[in-house]
Amino acid sequence: MSPSNIAFLVGGLIVGLMAFIGFMNAVKGTPVHRVADFGDGIPAAVGDPGFRTAVQLASRTPLHEGHTVDVFINGNETYPRLWSDLRGARESITLQLYYCEPGRMANELREILVDRARAGVRILFLYDAFGSSFPKEYIRALTDAGVVAKPFRPISVLAAHHVQNRAHIRVVCVDGRIGYTGGFGIADKWFGNGRDEGQWRDSNVRFTGPAVQQLQSAFVACWAEATGDLLVGDRLFAPAEPREGGVLAGVLHGSPSVGSTEAERFFALTIASARKRLWITNSYFVPDREFRRMIADTARRGVDTRVLTAGPETDVKSTLYAGRARYEELLRAGVRIYEYRKTMMHAKTVVVDGMWAAVGSMNADNRSLSFNEETVLMMLDAGMGATLERHFLDDLAHADEILLAEFRQRGSWDRLKEHVTHLVWRVL
């Protein structure tokens, strides 16, 4: 074999190996298969003292007292308060948002940020390069007023190795003392009551207390990646005032990892710790085999296990069909599944035994658990648990329950779509 042929063969092998490595990285899953107590029993229930220790260590997220928390459903509740807080900013505003598009909501945000920037408020805005579609003129209007706006992980050939890793995160911090996270974005479909056609149903949280520093630190980590600047200082991290009582809470920052992720460990422990009720609301419900088994095992233990997800009005049909492909497996175990009617269900919440509650940006799919930056406010609080349970039951009045006998009668065309989409569920 001539030297040129050998060089061509070696080059081809290298390219093939790199392509294989890239493919495996793009479809990787999470490694946790089950939650095992080091003794002989199952993990501590959410009401047991050991649960707090376990979830803090597993998720690498300390829980602190002293929080005030408001859970907002839909745009009618969320945005008036958000706009008011932004208009009241005196020192700083930091924002990191995945989904942004032109419209009335975007115009209102621009007006507020321009006004605050001209008033001397320091504003940093990090928008995902894939999930946002603001035109250049919009960003220029912000920067001309003094807002520092940067794209997160711009799409390019040189950045192809992390194109699948998006900032699905939601962060709004005002003066380092008020925080917002949830499923919201900047688009007009988030206006409304979440019940009528075209008005997305979502859940978001506004909070004060030590967890605002944790939310801010999630922003700082992504800002450092995007700009090279690692930000510190009291103007960004307002000193937390010691307060007893209030809601026990903490902000989980889920981030991609070579191995197990914080998001994966949080979700697995949450499922395994349920004793009475496990109620999951999630817009893109496509858990992998291990998480389906965990959820099914929870139902088999006699736990009231329910899942509320998007229905035919979903904005991503492929995810709907990929999730439906494994409904039967869960239904046979006793899991009750509901699909939201009329409009898109975009909320991401979970509540366990009326005490352990979470609201954030994390979906129940491989993308959120393996690839994305995510933020979740975790709360160990009976009041917050009761609130989320009430929201869940209210939503069921606007949802259709999937019954096993009826579901088995669906047509061959639907089954084919489910099978095909489930083949690529890890990248949806």
- The name of the CATH topology is Endonuclease, Chain A
Return Rg in Å. 22 Å
Number-wise, the strands total 15
How much is the average pLDDT? Answer: 90
Structural class: alpha+beta
Q: Beta-sheet strand percentage? A: 15-25%
Number of helices: 14
What form results from the Cα inertia axes?
Answer: globular
Supply the number of structural domains: 1
Largest sheet: 15 strands, mixed
Could you spell the SSE succession in H and E letters? HHEHEHEHEEEEHEHEHEHHEEEHEHEHH
> What's the architecture, going by CATH?
2-Layer Sandwich
**Spatial ordering of strands, largest sheet:** 4-3-2-5-6-7-1-8-14-13-12-9-10-11-15
Given this structure, which CATH class is correct? Alpha Beta
**Share of residues in helices:** 25-40%
At the fourth level of CATH, the homologous superfamily is: Endonuclease Chain A
Low-confidence stretches: 17-26
**Termini gap:** 44 Å
Short description:
The protein is of the alpha+beta class and 428 residues long.
Give structural notes:
With 428 residues, the protein is α+β, with helices and mostly antiparallel strands. It has one domain: Endonuclease Chain A (Endonuclease, Chain A, 2-Layer Sandwich), CATH 3.30.870.10. The protein is 39% helix and 21% strand. The chain has 14 helices and 15 strands. The chain has a 15-stranded mixed beta sheet with strand order 4-3-2-5-6-7-1-8-14-13-12-9-10-11-15, with helices on both faces. Helix 8 links the parallel strand 9 (277-282) and strand 10. The longest helix has 24 residues, at 3-26. The radius of gyration is 22 Å and the shape is globular. The N and C termini lie far apart (44 Å).
